[in-house]
Amino acid sequence: MTFSLGPRAASAGYRIAAFDSIGSTNAEALMRARAGETGPIWLATTEQTAGRGRRQRAWVSPRGNLASSILEVIDTSPAVAATLSFAAGLALEAALQTVSLEARMRSPGSENATFHLKWPNDVLAGGKKLAGILLEAETVAHDRLAVVVGIGTNVVAAPEGIPYPAVSLRDLGIDIGAADLFRALTEAWVEFRQIWDGGRGFGDIRRLWLDRAAGVGQAVSVRSGASTISGLFDTIDEDGCLIVATSDGKRMAVSAGDVYFGAAASIGAT
C-alpha cells in the first residue's frame, strides 16, 4: 500500500516515512528524534506489531488498519504540548468525516456514521471505540521538546476480547483503505495544528472539541488506579482536564483516568 501526504500537508513542509510493517510508529518517531530528527514528519503503516496505548497497554493493529504518528520538535512546555492531543482528535474526526462522505458518494447506500470524541484520547462511532490517540514527549537537544502524536484507527478490523466495545470502519460499512484515511488525516492535521498554534489557540480547540465530545452533561465515572470520581461530565478546562460535577456540588478536575459514560458509569464506579 502506498501512503502519500495531502497537497496542503506537502506544501506545508511535512514529510513521510512509510513502512510495510513496524513495531511501533511512536517508538520509531522517538528514536529518530533522539538521533536529531526535528520533523515535521509522519510515520505510517498498515501493520503494527508492538503498538501501545495509554499506560503501556497494548494497541492491537492488524494488517489493513492505520497506525500513524506525527513527530514535531517544538519549543513549549510538556503541559502545553499535552493539549495538542485535542487538536489531533479534531483532525482525525474531520478526516473520518471526509472519507465517510467519499465512501457514501461511491456507494449511495452506505451508512451515515457519526463520530464523537471521548476524553481524553478516543474517537467513538456508535458508542464504540474506533480510534485511539497517544501523545508522548521527551526533551531532546537544546532543551527542545520532541512531541509524538500516535493515532491508531480500526480501518478493516476491531480488536476482540477487550474490556470495552470496539468497531472498525468496515463494520460501519465505510469501504476505504488506510492510505485514503491517512491522506485525509494529514490534510486535517495542518488545519487544526495551525489553530492550536503552539497552545495559544487552545481556547478555540477546546470549543471545537466540546462541540464534538461524547457524554457532555451525562453521568460519568472516572477511574484512576484505586480512586474513582463520579458525577456529571461538565466540561474540559483550559488545561484540558475533565471537569466532573459531583453530587455534593463540587467541580473536580481530572487529568487522567478511564472514563465511563451513562449506564456504564455505574459499572466503572464499582
TrEMBL record:
Keywords: ATP-binding, Biotin, Ligase, Nucleotide-binding. Pfam families: BPL_C, BPL_LplA_LipB. The keyword Metal-binding does not apply. The keyword Ligase applies. It catalyses: biotin + L-lysyl-[protein] + ATP = N(6)-biotinyl-L-lysyl-[protein] + AMP + diphosphate + H(+). Residues 1-197 form the BPL/LPL catalytic domain. Its EC number is 6.3.4.15. NCBIfam families: birA_ligase. This is biotin--[biotin carboxyl-carrier protein] ligase.
